[in-house]
Write a structure and sequence with these properties.
single chain, 119 residues, alpha+beta, 6-stranded mixed sheet, globular, SnoaL-like domain-containing protein, UCP030561, SnoaL-like, NTF2-like_dom_sf
Length: 119
Amino acid sequence: MPQSDEAIRVVQRQLEAYNARDLEAFLAVFDDDVQAVDAETGAQIATSAAELRPRYERRFQTAVHCELLGRLACGDTVVDRERISGLPGGEWADCMAVYTVKGGKIVRMQLLWKAGGSQ
């Protein structure tokens, strides 16, 4: 199986769990030592799946939904272009996420996030 195919499957499972707001299924695709980074500032968002948990527990309390606008893959890297809706206050965001997948798990996630306003 080509490396990109596996990486795409892992990232797709993450997207489906996100849209189902299934926290356990969502976190299951991340490596225990995942590195999550703000792509614009380089700031660490989380250094483990355990650190991601509270962030997404809060996020999944809303009617959040990720619309996949486009996807590119090369080797173990997948880049998704997304629109996130259902954020608190009816807000939405424009997002680009870069995932690195190794051994069937996301080991690195870089997020570029721009608030879009109310829907």
